[in-house]
Fold this protein.
Amino acid sequence: MPYDYQLTVGSLLKQTVYRRGTGEIVYGKTRYTWSELFDRVNALASGLDSIGVKEGSRVAVVDVDTNRYLEMYYTIPMMGAVLHTVNIRLPPEQIAYTIGHAEDDVVMVRDEFLPLAAKIGAQIKSVKAVVTMSDSGIAPNSPLPNSHYYEDVARSRSNYEFPEIDEDTQATLFYTSGTTGLPKGVSFTHRQLVLHTLGIASGLADSAVRMNSADVMMPLVPFFHVHAWGFPYLAGMWGMKVVLVGKYEPKNILENLKNESVTVSDMVPTILNLVLNHPDAHQYREAFSRWKVIIGGAALPKELALTARKLGITVMAGYGLSETAPVLTLGTPKDEFRKLPDDQLLDQVLLKAGVPIPLVEIRVVDADMKNVPRDGATLGEVVVRAPWTTVGYYKEPERSEMLWSGGWLHTGDLASLDERGNLIIKDRLKDVVKSGGEWISTLYLEDLLTHHPAVLEAAVIGAKDSKWGERPVAVICFKPGTSATEQELLIHLQRFVDEGKIAKFWLPAKILISQNPLPKSSTGKLDKKPLREEYLNILVK
């Protein structure tokens, strides 16, 4: 009988050892090759087996982006266990909820999170062992029972034999940020992760960044968030040099960008904004000239994109969500667009969410699930199908049924499609302002507000209005050393009304000035929930 080849996480890594095993993994002063990582994966698997991790076990990881985390991205699924990437930016009670809901057997925890682990430990009954981690090379004092130290566990020299795993075995589990209630669990199989990796590899090769195995990758999407957009597995398949920065501190990012000859990164717009507004950013122009940046998680503001392009950075938008592993589309200019001036290329292609990568089907539909016209203007909800979309929410059958209503995964995103098939995200359905029966895109208003030279960040929310139902209210944070009045900002927006880019009724009913940075979600995106709670009734007399 012919061999029934299974698409597994291990299949992404094993051939890399022979093809490109000399590619480096860099984290601080730690530096080794993919071949050496494979040896560490084998030793770690043996050590985890000795403390009770078996096929079907659930292993939670509480860490920042380190080489150890990258090792666990492979070790745990290759053992037939489930990798639970814990969102470290959730409130403690929600972290406890996710670990308990997942029924994790083992928790791998960085030393700085041990006080948190001790605080919530009594609430979690399923955990049988804890593995502590540190950058110091010294085992921390653990307040938790049955604790082991990562480097001791990973020093095992017994020859671990990885099991033959069915490709439909669950490999990963993580939880959405819970902006609307408790976090929801989404899981993915080995087959889904492999197909997602192949899909993004094909899509990136033809995209505006033209990424390939010769690039040097510095991921700037947290490893706990949606597989860091698939980059840990893509890097392993390609054997790329990978630079990991731990915590996202702008100066450290800039230094690694320069010193490690980084060429490509993925991130949300707020991270790029922080890097470009660092006081020393102008000193890194040479490094910027080779940097290709993929933006997702939120719309890429045109002003931010132009600022990046002026510094020599190539920027491109993409689109996906937690339920889709996540990548669905990438900015992919056709040949006739590649020689356009920057501002035109941005408008025509790069600021749009892009076109579907291979194997992805996307529709934009009305309330009756009928396709809206592909005119770049008519709005509808984005629904998708792909071989790597989650089958549903973990232990939540009713929500899962709603997610897949009509046989398509419902994203909850409001968008249009242009005549070339580019997806243009307008807003989240829960964020859009409905004023007098008409939709107002908060994302577009935010983008226009950031065109003002004093505006660093802008968030637009809907506030109750007795006449129109809702009216838009903007909350602004200024760049250091700058300011503007509400009237000056309204005059700035009036220009776009005069140019026909927005209707007059889109102008905010009120513009509020924040002295502090705007609230962010656990993944670094603008979090409008606390703003809505604070300002929902600000227009009601």
Remarks:
- The mean pLDDT is 93.
- The longest strand covers residues 455-465.
